[in-house]
Design goal:
CATH class: Alpha Beta
Number of domains: 1
Helix content: 25-40%
Number of strands: 9
CATH superfamily: LmbE-like
Order of helices and strands: EHEHEHEHEEEEHHE
Strand content: 15-25%
Distance between the termini: 34 Å
Largest sheet: 7 strands, mixed
CATH topology: Rossmann fold
CATH architecture: 3-Layer(aba) Sandwich
Length: about 240
């Protein structure tokens, strides 16, 4: 399965929060986007792995993703080791994305940084033919994405670029709200968390407003990248 963009999140809902607008926009533009969750988020205070899996399916549907799968890594114990790398390399080679968008390299949850580093290393290693992986008994071809971007999560980071999502903010928010076990739900009787308050949804709008403001957009999502960003035409930059 060849797709254009692979969005990776260590927990179900990371992708919706970090780059849901970018996904929805690029799907509308005709690009294919797949979502890869690394864990089931089973250590989350609210909900369960089973509930979050159903919510993830709904979130992907709202965003228009071509596919979504979960690698089933152990929540809370992400490691950038050979076992995790090999499984992620196989997934990268399965989808052959040109672009990967993944977790923030430093954030409140330690899994986020671990997943960011794991993804960067796996993308490089995925391009080495002497690393052998298989799918359905067949040897996979080596594949290295053109670029890895990091979306911005709980901690503030200065974005290296912002993407206009003004026409897609409500799709993003609807995908987030699909996770009724995690975010504000007045009918929930579960323990309150940082992200379950109505203020957190307001914060999500505010972050998008902040990132859009200086580029002249109503709403935007910010991305970081650990390489130079090249352009052929300066007039295309805002």
């Amino acid at each position: 399965m060849k797709i254009d963009i692979l969005a990776i999140g260590v927990h179900p809902d990371d992708v919706e929060l970090g780059c849901g607008g970018i996904i929805a926009k690029h799907v509308k533009m005709g690009y294919s986007v797949a979502i890869l969750d690394l864990t089931q988020g089973e250590l989350g205070t609210r909900g369960s792995a089973e509930i979050r899996a159903k919510e993830a399916t709904e979130g992907a549907k709202i965003l228009g993703a071509t596919a979504r799968e979960n690698l089933g890594f152990k929540d809370g114990f992400m490691a950038n080791d050979e076992t995790h790398r090999m499984q992620l390399i196989a997934a990268i080679r399965k989808y052959c994305p040109n672009i990967i968008i993944t977790n923030a390299p430093h954030d409140r949850h330690p899994d986020h940084a671990a997943a960011a580093n794991l993804t960067v290393d796996a993308c490089f290693l995925s391009g080495l033919p002497k690393i052998v992986t298989t799918e359905n008994g067949n040897t996979q071809a080596a594949w290295r994405p053109q670029v890895v971007y990091h979306y911005i999560q709980a901690y503030y980071h200065e974005p290296h670029l912002v993407v206009d999502i003004s026409d897609f903010i409500e799709i993003k928010m609807n995908a987030i709200k699909a996770y009724k076990s995690q975010f504000y739900n007045p009918e929930s009787k579960e323990k309150e968390t940082l992200i379950s308050s109505p203020e957190f949804l307001q914060f999500t709008y505010a972050r998008a407003t902040e990132f859009g403001l200086h580029a002249g957009y109503k709403y935007a999502e910010g991305l970081m990248v650990n390489r130079y960003i090249g352009v052929n035409d300066l007039t295309l930059l805002k």
